[in-house]
Specification:
Elements (H helix, E strand, L loop, with lengths): L8 H14 L6 H12 L3 H15 L7 H41 L1
Helix pairs in contact: 1-2, 1-3, 2-3
């Protein structure tokens, strides 16, 4: 199973919500994460990343949101595809231009 898909989105949301709800009961965010992570069945570093990602998505922390990152990934994929198509068209254009020159020279 894919490492990033080991936990369902529902489990992730629940874990993040638990950390946010019980954050005030602990001296630090890390202490809350360390306490809740074993209950979810993940390592604290993973849960901390989920909490940070949720804060970025909610606008509470600076950074690139999940939606922005997904959009950038889509644009990069589209850009790559367009560059490839452009290279193919450029090669075809050069081929047909050379063929046209060869035909004119033979006439």
């Amino acid at each position: 199973m894919n490492k990033s898909n080991r936990f369902s989105p529902e489990v992730r949301e629940r874990a993040v919500r638990l950390v946010q709800e019980h954050r005030g009961e602990y001296p630090s965010l890390w202490a809350a994460v360390e306490s809740i992570a074993p209950k979810i069945g993940c390592v604290p570093q993973t849960l901390l990343e989920w909490v940070k990602r949720a804060e970025v998505d909610a606008g509470e922390r600076p950074g690139t949101t999940t939606a922005e990152a997904q959009r950038m990934k889509e644009l990069e994929r589209e850009n790559k595809e367009l560059r490839r198509a452009n290279d193919i068209l450029r090669t075809a254009s050069a081929f047909f231009a050379q063929a046209e020159l060869d035909r004119k020279l033979k006439s």
